[in-house]
Amino acid sequence: MSDKPVGEMSFEEAMRALETVVGQLERGDVALEDSIKLYERGAELKARCEKKLKEAEEKVAAITLDPNGNPAGTTPVEGL
Fold first, then answer.
1. Nearest to 37, CA basis, from 76, 1, 62
2. Which residues are bridge partners to 65 per DSSP?
3. What is the pTM assigned to this prediction?
4. End-to-end CA distance of the chain
5. Which of 9, 19, 42, 74 fits as disulfide partner to 13, beta carbons 3.0 to 4.6 Å?
6. Residue 17: burial class (beta carbons within 10 Å; 0-12, 13-18, 19+)
């Protein structure tokens, strides 16, 4: 498990780490205390992935179209 803080991870890093956590939990060969720590880390990683996806969705939604439906630029999204 990486010691990198979840808040500093890219979407891709957080996804890979989450997949690792899920794999360890699914195997079921982890001690109870370690399972609890893995579950907590998994919850943090899931929240990070959701946040990064939401940010990406907001950026995509901010793309403006011209009258013909072609991308014409972007509109700033509040908070980004």
1. 1
2. 71
3. 0.73
4. 30
5. 9
6. buried
**CA separation for the pair 55, 49 (Å, rounded):** 10
Instruction: Please answer whether residues 41 and 21 qualify as being in contact, where contact means their C-beta atoms are separated by less than 8 angstroms.
Output: yes
Question: Closest Cα partner for 52 from 3, 1, 2, 18?
Answer: 18
Cα 43 from chain centroid (whole Å)? 11
Q: Strand pairing of 63-65 and 71-74?
A: antiparallel
Give the Cα separation of 67 and 80 in Å (integer): 26
Spell out the SS3 assignment of 23-68: HHHHHCCCCHHHHHHHHHHHHHHHHHHHHHHHHHHHHHHCEEECCC
Report pLDDT digits (tens) over 23-74: 999 999 999 999 999 999 999 999 999 999 998 888 777 777 777 878 777 6
